[in-house]
Design brief:
Mean pLDDT: 87
Radius of gyration: 21 Å
Largest sheet: 2 strands, antiparallel
Strand order of the largest sheet: 1-2
Number of helices: 10
Structural class: mainly alpha
Low-confidence stretches: none
Strand content: under 5%
Number of strands: 2
Distance between the termini: 43 Å
């Protein structure tokens, strides 16, 4: 391997093995460059590659540095989000294709949530729907609340890989961002969220599936232009 790859692979292995712990700061770049016997330029290329994989994050400032990030299902979502956004920007895949995959995943996700949801999951979903009920259609928090609702369901499924995928695809497509969000549409989408929440609370997979299909179909019918 090239020197940059050797540095990258050595640090990655240390992170994934737990030798470097979450939140731990890497040695200064000058020290790392000396340890690996490479130039500062080569080292920085390796660090940028690790940052793009969400294994480390660079914190600016005199007391900053390169810090090890948490490696979990959310990291999967972050990596997938970046990859899908790049493919969309390049025109390699269409928006509709990504939206279709998200819908295909959300049905089994909500069914699993009825089986595995915890009291904490229900409390989070209830808080989100409560905030949605009191929000106006022009509230800037609406897209974030919608993202939280769908990703909370995915987490409640108990399948972390599924949670990472749904979170990434939902963030990439942002369905509410493209809605013709009139007051009527806003009220109806919140009503549909409440029906999904109720089915999850009642642990009724059939009702949950019917509610999410109704909701996703409604969103698709009211989607607007994406430019």
């Amino acid at each position: 391997m090239r020197p940059r790859q050797q540095v990258e692979e050595t640090i990655r292995a240390a992170i994934l093995s737990g030798e470097l712990e979450v939140g731990e700061m890497l040695p200064p770049e000058t020290v790392l460059a000396q340890q690996f016997g490479v130039s500062r330029t080569t080292l920085r290329e390796a660090l940028r590659a690790l940052a793009s994989q969400h294994l480390i994050v660079k914190v600016p400032g005199a007391r900053g540095g390169n810090i090890v990030q948490s490696v979990d299902y959310q990291s999967l979502g972050d990596v997938l989000t970046d990859a899908v956004q790049n493919l969309l920007a390049l025109g390699s895949i269409r928006f509709e294709e990504v939206a279709d995959v998200r819908r295909y995943l959300e049905v089994p996700s909500v069914r699993l949530a009825t089986e595995h949801r915890t009291d904490a999951d229900l409390a989070e979903l209830t808080e989100i729907v409560s905030r949605q009920k009191s929000a106006s259609v022009d509230d800037p928090d609406i897209p974030e609340l919608d993202r939280r609702f769908h990703t909370a369901i995915a987490r409640a499924s108990g399948n972390r890989a599924l949670a990472g995928l749904v979170a990434a695809l939902h963030q990439t497509t942002e369905p509410v961002h493209y809605l013709d969000l009139s007051e009527e549409v806003g009220r109806e989408t919140v009503k549909q969220h409440a029906a999904i929440l109720n089915a999850i609370a009642e642990q009724d997979p059939e009702a949950a599936e019917a509610a999410i299909v109704t909701h996703l179909t409604y969103l698709q019918e009211h989607i607007g232009r994406r430019d």
